[in-house]
Amino acid sequence: MPPTPLQPVKIRNLGIYGIIRQAEVDDNLIPEGAVVEAVNVHFDRKGATTVRPGMTALGTTFAASGVVGLTAGQAPMIIHNIFDSGLIAVLADGSGYYYNSVGSDWGRRASAGVFTSDAKVRAVNFLDRAVFVNGGLESIRTGKFIGNAGSFEFATTDTQPLNMQQFASDSTINTQTLRAKFIEVFKSRIYLSGDPTTPDRLFFSSVATSTGKITWTPSLDYVDINPSDGENISALKRFSLELLVFKPNYIYRFRTSGTDPDPLINVGTRSQESITEGKRGMYFHHDSGFYRYSGGYPEEIGRAISDVILAIPFSRYDDITGWKDTDHIYWSIGNLTISGETWINVVVRYTESSDIWTIYSYPSDIRRAAIYTAGSYQTIVVGLDNGAATTLNTGTTDLGEPIKYREITKWYELEGIQNTKIIQTLAAICEKAQGTNLMYQVNDEIEWKSVGDGQIRKFLNIFRNLNIKLNRIRFKVTGVSRNEAPLFLGLEILEGINEGLI
């Protein structure tokens, strides 16, 4: 067969199916428009990929807020939104901070050691205050904003209206103070679990009265969540008309209509913080992947990036942190090693409306997250392992650091893998290119080579006289975003030769 002109090929609509990893799908089955790798880009504009937004400091770091005696670099154990009035953060040294629209920085309301250090703090809003538990290691605390300045006060005891000391001091069950790891509000009651001496027991308060008060009878008001299954309660989450009680490999539905919880399925979670409610259901991490529960059988949603999910170290399972925005669910999953390559401070993002995934990497590990509301404005606030509080999806850098990005396409065979082709002219289309780099890989070669000089400098970039010989080819786009986020629109192979079967 004599050589023939290679038909022009458009490689467009990149990311329309998000990331589909080769570990999950054979090359030949990956659809047009999918990419096999993308870090720090997203696909919110159909048919194009753009660099993700950055993060911006919310106030100064906790350690730099001018408070004497605070150890530098303390990661948060919780960041909690209190009735859209402000944020509370408890740090690893046990100190407590608040932030609201009244001030411009974090203020300290509890010194180091007030909460047990390095123990997970969890909180709910109930009646007029927040209720805190501290890893089953100490009594329940409450707190609320007070005064015109919006200051915050913690209380170690609360006689009214929550009567938390009544729960904590009940000695008919234990010889020591009752404590809890997990807390949730459901049908006008507070539910507590995770007491170290009764790890399968779910305690509940009375229903709040018309005057806004509750009482506790822990010796009577509880239900044991199947102690015979061999696992302890690991999370609580309200969803619709159910209270979901999680264990590492089980979920129980508790509806308060009877004393026996309804077992759901043999998946659960080790991380309370991984559970996030979106538009289509409740999302959570299990040892086998990420799942969505919408009232029926939990559905695994992460197969497209299964090798990434399965690379999460077991030591991270109980500390996976999730959050959401309008159309996306995020999970911070830490450092990963995939095929010998280390990925740093990884966040995976799932888009609910399109079922697609992408992957982010940040300079620091995101430990906790909350939604902050100031008037009609909402933003995601996260606490980093270096002690900083930041807003996500703001700005074009990560606290001043440029955002490094990369994207790898699927393999393209171009008129049959059995034929040898030569690409002579190729076009790359990119808005706000800012020095984006274009590379390629052919056949089974390991080396990545530059397309021409590799530089994408303008909207339409024509690379001529390439003479790239191949049976199959894929492309990689890399760069560093500093001021404006580049928007990569795709490639077009304009000229080439099909040499036929050689």
Overview features:
eight-stranded antiparallel beta sheet; 502 residues; five-stranded antiparallel beta sheet; mainly beta
Helical element count?
Answer: 2
Termini separation comes to: 9 Å
The CATH architecture category of the largest domain equals 7 Propeller
Sheet with the most strands, sense and barrel status: 8 strands, antiparallel
Helix content: under 10%
Identify the overall geometry.
elongated
Number of β-strand runs:
41
Instruction: Write down the Rg.
Output: 26 Å
> β content, as a range?
over 45%
Walk me through what this model shows:
- This protein is an all-beta fold and 502 residues long.
- The chain contains 2 helices and 41 strands.
- The strands form 9 sheets. Strands 1, 2, 4, 5, 35, 38, 39 and 41 form an 8-stranded antiparallel beta sheet that branches. A 5-stranded antiparallel beta sheet has the order 3-34-40-36-37, with no helix packed on it. Strands 6-33-32-31 form a 4-stranded antiparallel beta sheet, with no helix packed on it.
- Residues 65-70 have low confidence and may be disordered.
